Amino acid sequence: MKRKTSPIIPVVTWIIILAALAPVLWMLLISFKQRVDIISFSVLFKPTLENYKTVFQKYDFLRFILNSTIVVVATTAISVFLGTLAAYGLARFQFKKKESLAFGILSLRMLPPMAVVIPFFIMARYTHLLDTQLLLIIVYLGFNIPFTIWMMRGFIEDVSLSIEESAWLDGCTRLEGFCKVVFPSIFPGLAATSIFCFIQSWNEFALAFFLTSFNSRTVPTIVNSFISVLGVLWGEMAAVGVVSILPIVIFTMFVQKYLVKGLTMGAIKG
C-alpha cells in the first residue's frame, strides 16, 4: 500500500518557497518602477528600463561586472585546484599533528574580514597592489582555500581507499589514480564546493570596498554609490541587485544536477 502524504506538507512547502522568493520578486518589481512609483506598494505600474539604463550608462556597471567576473572565476578555479590537492593529502596521508594542521587551516576561515583588512591594506600599499584585481584574488584565496580543503576532505574520505589501491595495482601512479578513480567520484562535491566559493567571492563587500578605489571595484561595492545625503536611489539599487544575482543563478543551473548529489554525499553510509 502506498503511504498517504499529508496535504499540509505541500502547502507549507509552497509557503516557505514564496516567503524566500518574496524579497527577490519585490526587488525585481522595484527595478522596473519609476521613482514616483517606488514609494507605493502597488504592483500595478507602468514598467520602465530607466533604472537599468542609468546603472549601465552613468555608473559604468559593465566594468564592475567584468572586474567581479575576473576575480571570482580566478579565485574559484585556483581555490578548487589547490584546495582539492591539499584535501587529498589530509585525507590519504598520515603524519604527526595532522588534525592540528587541519584545524589551523580552518581557523583561517573563521577570521572576520574586518580583522585583516588593515594588514592587507598595508602590505598591498608597500607592494603596489592596491586597487588591483590581483590583490583581491590573493585575498579571496586566503579565505576560500581553507573552506575548499575542509569541504573536499570529507568527499575524498568517502571514496574507498581500496578502489584507489586497485588502480595502483593495475599500474597507475598516485596522480593517475586520483585523476581516473578519485576525481570522477568527488566531482559532485567539487561542483557544490565551487558554487559556495563562487557565491562567497561574488558577494564579498568589505574587503573589496576597502582595498579598491576605482579600477578594480566589484559589483557589491557599487551599492554604496546609491546612498547619499539626499536619500537612497532604490530603483538603481534594485536594478544592480537583479543583475548581480543572474551570474549565480546561471552558474547554479549549469551544475544543478551535481549540487544536490554533492551536498548529500556521505550522508548515508551502508
UniProtKB/TrEMBL annotation:
Superkingdom per UniProt: Bacteria
Annotated ABC transmembrane type-1 domain residues: 65-255
GO biological processes: transmembrane transport
InterPro entries referenced in this protein's UniProt entry, alphabetically: BP-dep_ABC_trans_perm, MetI-like, MetI-like_sf
Entry GO terms, CC: plasma membrane
Subcellular location(s) of the protein: Cell membrane
Function: Part of the ABC transporter complex MalEFGK involved in maltose/maltodextrin import. Probably responsible for the translocation of the substrate across the membrane.
Protein name: Maltose/maltodextrin transport system permease protein MalG
